[in-house]
Amino acid sequence: MYLLTVGINHKTAPLDIRNSLSLQEKELRKKLLKKQQELKMNEFLILSTCNRFEIYIFSESDNYKQQFLKDYFYQFFYQNLREDLHYKLDSLSNYLYFKFDLQAVEHLYRVAAGLDSLVTGETQILAQLKRQFNDYQTHNLTDSYLNQLFLEAIRIGKLVRTETKISEKAVSVSYSAVELARNIFGDLQGEKVMILGAGETAELLLKNLVNYGVEGIIVANRTYSNGQKLADKYGGEVIHWQQLTDRIAEVDIIIASTAAPHTVLHKNDLKAAMQKKHGPMFLIDIALPRDIDCQVEELAGVHLYNIDDLQQVVDHNLDIRAGEISKAEAIIAQEKYKFRRWLRERSCVPLIKEMRADAEQIKADEVARALHLLATSELSAEEIIEQLGHRLLNKLLHQPTIGLKAIAAEEPVHKKEKLAVIKKIFAVGD
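Now predict its structure.
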């Protein structure tokens, strides 16, 4: 069997090209199904995400390393691009990559492990890969080879994340805020948060904090109705902007993300609040210009972080992940050879089936003969069983014996190697 991967990803092709193909995944699947016999594809699977569009194919045909196949998929990708992107025809050959056999196995393992992702070690790709594989398996588009390959890829994706730190530490601004908050409070269960403003970034921060157990949400927004929507979404309370300074002593975390052209939270506001509190205050200011007076850092127990601070955490964590790449690659390098071994072992399955079928026929014939003798012959059961064993032994070893004699009669050039194989198969000799 031959394995081919052909595709584009965020490293090789611009977003408009990737989107044009990924949005048509189900339609392109149908087109390939119609061409399956012509292209001699035993199995295929399209892995389509926002960052990649790849086709994985197993075929018995050795044509899968020929130029005509590259030409076909080049035309296939081109013909299925939006017409307004056809001007990029000259560049398409640079966007496409072709990977064969072991190289294709390694590529999929890297994808599953998050090594080929925009953000190293991200976990979303593994979920996407599982979902796509389950879909194709459900529709009987994959068989034993792709099933084994993708099950192994999923296993290795998990293994890499377990054995290395490739997916640890926050690598987004919103998650870095959670990481910092946990450094201050430990468990976030039951901590209270106030959000100033109702923008998308602030909501994402709030969502991640809530996922880690933050409760008692208070939303303060100049437009009360917008604040109400956000509060309702997360089971929180909305307050009028004028109530802001009166309520900040109730919370442990403040996310500031207004569009105000000036500071909205001052040192004196926090000073008064901290006199009423018995714990730390974690402030996240992601507004530009800043919402929170930077002098609040002078207050005991107050921890202020702005967007640049959060980005520094992200950059540091990305460096940590980058340091784990070599460990992940070592795992993949080892595992890809295991799959190649499995693939090679599969090549003899038809022969094994044929051998077992022949042996099964011999067994059936001899058992039938023995049963007939037991019913009709004057021979004892012991004699019949002895005959059965003797006849089975002779018949099962007849062809191997003839083959072995033929090898022994050959010129000595390759005889030694062939005899060594025979010894290994039958586990005899030194």
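The chain has three domains: 2-166+324-346, 173-319, 352-426.
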